[in-house]
Amino acid sequence: MMEKLFDEYRGLSDKKIRPNEPKSEQFLKAFKELLDKKNNWAFLLPFKLSLEACTHCGTCAEACPVYIGSGREKIYSPVYRADMLRRIYKKYFTLSGRIFGRLVGAKEITERDVNALAEAAYRCTICRRCALACPFGLDNGLIMREARKILAELGIVPDELKEEGVENQITYGSAPKIPYEALMNILDFVKSEIEENRKNVNIEVPVDKVGAKYLIINNAGDYLSFLDTIRGIVEIMNYVNEDWTFNSQNTGVFDNVNYGLFYSDKDMIRVIRAHLETFKKLKPEYVVVGECGHAYDVLGHLMKDLIPAEERPFKVIHIVELYDKFLREGKLKLDKDKNSAPVTFHDSCKIGRCGGIYDEPRRLIAASCRDFREMYPNREYNYCCGGGGGFALMSKYNFLDFRMKTYGKLKVQQIKDTGASTLITICANCKRQFLDMVSYYNLNTTVSGLSEIIANALVY
Amino acid sequence: MYEYMLLIVGIILPYLTLAVFGIALAYNFFKWMFLPRPVMWAIFPAKENTVSILLTIAKRIFSLPGPRKFDKLIFTLAWMFHIGLIVSLSLHAKYIFLPHLPFEYEMGSIAGLFAAIGSFGFIIRRYYDKRAESYFADYFALVLLIITLLLGTYIRILKLVDPAQLWGWVQGILSLNPVLPPTNTLFLIHLFFAQIYMMYLPFKTLIHPIAIFYGQKVILDKRHIGKE
């Protein structure tokens, strides 16, 4: 039984956090480096602004799904969590904090604070709904991400994100270490299954094709856990008869994830570089991000800021944008009666609130489903499912209980209120969280990607 | 002794206040302006051009969309407070140009009262609302403001100060030929607290309007809306 460090849950092991080892000095050193332009040029402004300009009005709390889902426990409010770091910032890095101390909320760091922060930083999925609520646009989610960056410098990162995530991806081409032969077998199986279902249809699954118009790079987890989505993609791309390809480890990284986003700019850039090397070999016109949210956030948005334009001679789009383009061009003939069960749609945070894709999936669902029911709130106000920030991968100790009893509880109610029997989402981490939710709460809901829904509605 | 007080509160302190306020405000604004911001990490729906960004900022200042959606109480209090304060401060600023406006006492009294009620509500909310910790500094700014606002409103309602005399004092300060301020004691206390608050403002509270210009929701250019 591990000791409590922040709340009744644990997401990281004692081996990782090392609760009895003094870390506060190292923490302050890493914090100081993070406040330096040279070390944190990318996020310094919003980070410092969010640390300094908060008036503690608490408006963000009512926007936070974990706070609401927990029954409004104070420790889960965004401002409380951010204040754990903010108070240390005031004490060591501001004049007023040094002079006036507790009067301005400054606090001396203790070993207990560092241990608590190590867990608290992993109670926020960085869904950034709080930033939407803040009257000044401050981002307590970003503060939690920066806290994770400090902790990463101390070696405190969940194995699921670093060792089993980033390191695997860079070494083996995918986080789940799918061997080449296994990948090919999976794709052969997908091909034969579609050909069996759709008589007289010849299916091609190009892999590592150089110079294809569309390079579709999936979340590798889809090849293992959400094969229906892969099947959907293959069928749709064959249906529209476009020039496209998947890739494998033979050309580099074939997993679109970038878990560096969740804990370290350095690792995020390492993965971006590995992706760029891969794209350089394959020379696509478009890099199409498969059904994954955070991958789209990094490749579709952050990469544009972090990497000069000449180093990325391709366009990046989410696969839903591509389907939407096909639909608007009349290339997709869909029969909505083929999907007659009531469906609802979950706006993934990284695709909606952080990605700007709201209308495309709705157009596609409207064209391929008979009974679409919005969940409320939706679009930019939608609640995070609880799988974001790397959480969908973290189930050890009692962390699954945390995910289910806070975020999950709120989300389950939202889904139930729609009365839909199928939940559609376009992010692999959301899907994982929903599958866990279905089993944890014994829900009678089918979790689906959009690709298989569209593929099912295709008219031949 | 009283004359020294008049001199300090009515002549020395105003120049000190203007200097501290101006320099600290400019420092705060430029500090953020010169920090690099290569990564936008936007919140969508995004704004596609400068006009829509400016409209969004204006909307955010006057309609407080976040609090309106998520916390009706703070929305109501913030609205009362800010509108009251803006009207009240405008009626003070008018002494730069005009000695008197019709209904200024009535308007000023109502505005001051609105702002005071708003700030009092903030204090009560802070005390009872346990979602966020509040520190001495958070209460200090509000208490200072309430004292200033209530004194100002009381002075206006009872018309304790002659506007012509105030006009003369303001003009004297601005033209660098200062004259002593009106001698009413309550007015001098009001003036003293108002100046302390103004000097404190840029270090604490005034960061938040600046934050509106740099916060996460404003943003964007073509790169971030997929139209590169």
Largest interface: A-B, 62 and 51 residues
**Beta-strand proportion of chain B:** under 5%
Tally of structural domains of chain A: 3
Number of strands of chain A: 8
**Inertia-based shape of chain A:** globular
Rg of chain B: 20 Å
Strand order of the largest sheet of chain A: 2-1-3-4
Main sheet attributes: strand count, strand direction, barrel closure of chain A = 4 strands, parallel
The main β sheet of chain B shows up as: none
Quickly count the helices of chain B. 9
Which characteristics define this entry?
heterodimer; A: 460 residues; mainly alpha; Fumarate Reductase Iron-sulfur Protein, Chain B, domain 2; Rossmann fold; 3 domains; 4-stranded parallel beta sheet; 20 helices; 8 strands; 48% helix; 6% strand; globular; B: 228 residues
Description:
The complex is a heterodimer of chains A (460) and B (228). Chain A has three domains: 14-153, Fumarate Reductase Iron-sulfur Protein, Chain B, domain 2, CATH 1.10.1060; 162-327, no CATH class; 332-457, Rossmann fold (3-Layer(aba) Sandwich). Chain A has 20 helices and eight strands. Chain A has helices at 14-17, 24-34, 44-52, 65-69, 78-93, 95-100, 111-120, 129-133, 140-153, 162-172, 180-197, 221-225, 227-240, 265-282, 293-306, 319-328, 359-368, 399-418, 428-440, 450-457; strands at 214-217, 244-245, 286-289, 315-318, 342-345, 371-373, 422-424, 446-448. A four-stranded parallel sheet of chain A has the order 2-1-3-4. In chain A, helix 3 packs across helix 9 and helix 17 (359-368) runs parallel beside helix 20. The mean pLDDT of chain A is 96. By secondary structure, chain B is mainly alpha-helical. Chain B has a single domain (2-225), classed as Fumarate Reductase Cytochrome B subunit (Up-down Bundle). Chain B has helices at residues 2-33, 50-63, 65-70, 72-93, 104-128, 136-157, 163-174, 185-200, 207-214. In chain B, helix 1 (2-33) packs parallel to helix 8 (185-200), helix 4 runs antiparallel to helix 5 (104-128) and helix 6 packs antiparallel against helix 8 (185-200). At the A-B interface, helix 3, helix 5, helix 8 and helix 15 of A face helix 3, helix 6 and helix 9 of B.
